[in-house]
């Protein structure tokens, strides 16, 4: 009688190693975000943002600058509100920089959007 084989427990999920971040993968992510921003696709933007993200927004209002720290859900609401106003202007990212963490699992990305 041949030996019986047991199937692995389907409820157990092996964690796959996350790929390391590279300049190319970050550029691709930023390009995907840009492609979602142009048609004002809030879900397309948030698809690339971690659930526990904290987003700092700096806004220049005339002669002074204001800052806001937003959760992902607060950012969703702000984007939705911003995108509801009709505008003939295109959103553009300029001066994008990033710094990669030594473990290559996270990065800090700064950009200026107009």
How do the strands and helices of this protein lay out in sequence?
Blueprint: H1 23-37, H2 42-46, E1 55-61, E2 64-70, H3 72-84, E3 93-100, E4 107-113
Antiparallel strand pairs: 1-2, 3-4
Describe this protein's structure.
A hairpin with a 6-residue loop joins strand 3 (93-100) and strand 4 (107-113). Helix content is 29%, strand content 25%. Mean pLDDT is 79; it is low at 1-12. The radius of gyration is 20 Å and the shape is globular. A two-stranded antiparallel ribbon has the order 1-2. The protein has a two-stranded antiparallel ribbon with strand order 3-4. The chain has three helices and four strands; from the N terminus they run H-H-E-E-H-E-E. It has one domain (23-113). The N and C termini lie far apart (72 Å). It has 114 residues and is of the alpha+beta class.
Kindly list the characteristics that best describe this protein:
single chain, two-stranded antiparallel ribbon, two-stranded antiparallel sheet, disordered N terminus
Could you give a quick summary of the protein structure above?
With 114 residues, the protein is of the alpha+beta class. The protein has helices at 23-37, 42-46, 72-84; strands at 55-61, 64-70, 93-100, 107-113. The relative contact order is 0.15.
């Amino acid at each position: 009688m041949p030996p019986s084989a047991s199937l692995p427990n389907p409820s157990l999920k092996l964690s796959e190693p996350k790929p390391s971040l590279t300049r190319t993968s970050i550029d691709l992510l930023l390009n995907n975000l840009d492609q979602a921003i142009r048609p004002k696709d809030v879900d397309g933007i948030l698809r690339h943002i971690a659930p526990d993200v904290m987003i700092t927004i700096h806004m220049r209002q005339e002669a002074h600058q204001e800052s806001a720290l937003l959760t992902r859900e607060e950012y969703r609401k702000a984007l939705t509100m911003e995108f509801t106003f009709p505008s003939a202007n295109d959103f553009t990212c300029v001066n994008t920089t990033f710094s990669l963490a030594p473990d290559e699992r996270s990065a800090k990305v700064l950009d200026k959007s107009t």
